Amino acid sequence: MTDIEIAQKNVMAPIADVAKKIGIGEESLELYGPYKAKITMAELRALQEKARDPQKRGKLILTTAVTPTPAGEGKSTVSIGLGDGLNRIGKKAVIALREPSLGPCFGVKGGACGGGYAQIVPMEDINLHFTGDIHAISIANNLISAIIDNHIHQTNALRIDPRTVTWKRVVDLNDRALRNITIGLGGRTDGIPREDHFCISVASELMAIVCLATSISDLKKRIDNITVAQTFDRRPLKFGEFKCTGAIAALLKDAIKPNLVQTLEKNPVFVHCGPFANIAQGTNSVNATLCALASGDYVVTEAGFAADLGAEKFMDIKCRAAGISPDAVVVVATVRALKMHGGMAKADLSTPSIAALQKGFENLSVHLDNIKKFGVPSIVAVNKFVTDTDEEIAMLEKLCETKGARAVLCEGWAKGGEGMEELARAVVDITEKTKADFRYLYESSASFVEKIRTIARQIYRASDVEFPPSVLKKLREYEEMGYKELPVCIAKTQNSLSHDPKLMGAPKDYIFPVRDVQLYSGAGFVVVLAGDIMTMPGLPKMPAALNIDIDDDGVISGLF
Amino acid sequence: MTDIEIAQKNVMAPIADVAKKIGIGEESLELYGPYKAKITMAELRALQEKARDPQKRGKLILTTAVTPTPAGEGKSTVSIGLGDGLNRIGKKAVIALREPSLGPCFGVKGGACGGGYAQIVPMEDINLHFTGDIHAISIANNLISAIIDNHIHQTNALRIDPRTVTWKRVVDLNDRALRNITIGLGGRTDGIPREDHFCISVASELMAIVCLATSISDLKKRIDNITVAQTFDRRPLKFGEFKCTGAIAALLKDAIKPNLVQTLEKNPVFVHCGPFANIAQGTNSVNATLCALASGDYVVTEAGFAADLGAEKFMDIKCRAAGISPDAVVVVATVRALKMHGGMAKADLSTPSIAALQKGFENLSVHLDNIKKFGVPSIVAVNKFVTDTDEEIAMLEKLCETKGARAVLCEGWAKGGEGMEELARAVVDITEKTKADFRYLYESSASFVEKIRTIARQIYRASDVEFPPSVLKKLREYEEMGYKELPVCIAKTQNSLSHDPKLMGAPKDYIFPVRDVQLYSGAGFVVVLAGDIMTMPGLPKMPAALNIDIDDDGVISGLF
């Protein structure tokens, strides 16, 4: 059966019943049909307060992975399965995940609700529109653009230099034709011509902002602080100067509230906000994590791409902003992915190869070392594929042991929570026996150059960082503007520990080149661009959209 | 109190209770919070079937108006108040309205939920996002664009001529900078450069399609039929050829289902789809009207702008597509608007003037004559303003009498349903005493030229129509392609009975110039452009967005 067929065969529990399991009453839910709900603002506040008390909140388990390969790792499947597994062994576990973007859904990757018997449901709704959060963020983002261009067109009292507008329009699709455009053509009544660029909604600063904001005031402060352009005399212009923040925040009044859904095994899952993990922080909202921490004894959450991107940003950006930290990290690996890191071609992956596995293990090894630098214990989740041999799995377990990490075979895809009980027990065990001694990789007080160099050397294993003079100048300006304390969010390829997507395995001792930097003063970090980062993906020759259909009863097929 | 303050003071009934009043059980609702719901697909089908039986459906009352002026007419306020008034006098009345677009909401006009004590609620939600229908239509529209541009970029197996793409991207905002743009810049990997244009979502063909489709199959057939471009050898290309209709329809799976909300007096209102009334049909969905007709003894619905645009399209496009017809028409007029049509400046409207009223009455008189041509009886609703004098109102009543139309003073804005009881009684009276003898203005079998000429002469009072040779050629081509039976949807200014916005009052004997035509083969009509039609409005110097705010409890202010 396909994922969607498994999901459709499943009988869901009313979401109010799922909420009740974690102490959230019906009066604290805003229902979106019987199987989806948002948490009311009042309940959100109560849960935030509880989660901020270290005595009252649950343990936080972060799922991350080895460097992605075309072989696939199944991080969401492991996260969801682990949540189910923890519930099966008697723990009150809650999962917190990102919302899927429509771009990948219709492009190459498909949806993002897990797979097999480790899925969240209703998967069609979660993958398509869900409760409208991404649409709300998209239109709020584009209203900011319309307000800016209207201001330039009407009076330009703020003296905005149209050549300096950095705030981009968005659409939540893969649409390469919108990457580079010219707007405002047509003459006197049709605006001021300028170059513009669309990015996919999930790569936007506003997505990052909603993901970090914990209240409407916090949201408004962040929107006020967005740097959107410069004036003709090069003064950075914040959106607050347009006096239109209230309308933008009003559009986001529901988007800021976490959504609750369920796994196939009827366990609670908060699914909220979906920032990309290359250009932004790559993890679900602070609000969703706080709700989960307040309502579960164990919280399973994940961060996008591999540990060099998702986990580092989770620790240094999200944990710092939210005042939380993980108690353990689960690193997802597959025999197939490691064999690719060891040099095997995708077509050959079904052939057993201990040698390729050993060689590719270097990638996992680096990620395990990196996680130690944050003072958090880790476990390796070996996501089982049918082609894996017993010898390969035994070898992988042995290799992990040499790094002091336990490797646990996971069969969530085929068996749901039952196939994840061993990992669940291992997670409980490690959190009970090993107290995390969490620390950030860098201090807020360090300079931007130091922050970037620390990440590049310690996480990416570069020997040094190359900063163009223009970047050094911009970083100095940001520091002078009072932003020195901000963390950095490095935008680099997800396909390598380095900046170069071709370097698989465990590259080291190279020069990490920074191309440009951009101040996300609303979100509260500095984006550091290294290599070509896609903020607007394109569709492939045969988009996933071509497989999707719907019948007269509204039943969807071909969504994966 | 402002509209939003009145709305927020009101205590809503759970929407399930409101639905129960019209025989719709909770199992037939998909709740979006406690006060909004969609009708399930099963219930929609049951209601459609009932509504198609003339013995079982309620009476249909269409609200239309005199030609709009900056003085405002309050058509929605009258429609909502009339629904409440009918319920107050013991009739089971249901209202069917369009969904507001975010463009006007942040631009000049504000929201579209009525005013004073004749409002629909929750007005903040209905005005902002609502149940996500317009967002779903926007993203589905833009996925069609992405699929087209991706096809051109990848292989262009269909040999699409990029210069001929007529399918436009949309955003549901007033954003003039997107009216004329160049896309696909940047080089080899960033698409094929071409000219493009955004329009506001509510002006799109896809909005018109969702508004007319009665099932998923019907929707898919219409999407298949959309003409999106031409090939290099000038063959019109339909979207069906891209084999991606299923994904587009899947995105619209919920958008096709009507939404139920309530008036301040807790009466049921279907609010669904919002096509513009200049470029499209300007009235709520067929599905919503059918649901209302099946569940109410009286259904009050409205069509955008004045009777020359909204009412004509309601009769000739919507009624034809849905197999329904109105039993009576209510024409909304105000003393102030008629005085403007009589030549008074807006600043002087508070000064009593019988002369200006008499002169301006000509506009109302033409609309009353026009409605007679459809064989439907009409009533004039005089929407009372505080500056109206008794003499002016008496004169207006007398003038209407000369046309054989009863004029009824309406005080829905100030008094809610209580101020609308007299109009409600008059509506019941006219539908009981006068049987409508409904007829279309033109037959489907007439040529496009005949159809356009009939509307221009009979409704717009032009002496003739000017067709450029290129338009005649296109119309002939459409007929040869097999579209001869389609109705025409004339896109012209709303500010005059003619094509010229400066001609107030009752212009006649002029030449009506057709500029261009466009085949909406998906929606099922031919758009006839006369004059400059704005399909992407711009923001004013001081956008309404600047007044909107939200507090930490999520309470919105300044939305009107």
Automatic annotation (TrEMBL), chains A, B:
GO terms for molecular function: ATP binding; formate-tetrahydrofolate ligase activity. InterPro entries: Formate_THF_ligase, Formate_THF_ligase_CS, P-loop_NTPase. Gene3D superfamilies: Domain 2, N(10)-formyltetrahydrofolate synthetase, Formyltetrahydrofolate synthetase, domain 3, P-loop containing nucleotide triphosphate hydrolases. Its EC number is 6.3.4.3. It catalyses: (6S)-5,6,7,8-tetrahydrofolate + formate + ATP = (6R)-10-formyltetrahydrofolate + ADP + phosphate. SUPFAM superfamilies: P-loop containing nucleoside triphosphate hydrolases. ATP binds at residues 69-76. Pfam families: FTHFS. Pathway: One-carbon metabolism; tetrahydrofolate interconversion. The keyword Nucleotide-binding applies. Keywords: ATP-binding, Ligase, Nucleotide-binding, One-carbon metabolism. It is an enzyme of class 6 (ligase). GO terms for biological process: tetrahydrofolate interconversion. NCBIfam families: PRK13505.1 (NF010030). Belongs to the formate--tetrahydrofolate ligase family. This is Formate--tetrahydrofolate ligase. The lineage of its organism: Bacteria, Pseudomonadati, Spirochaetota, Spirochaetia, Spirochaetales.
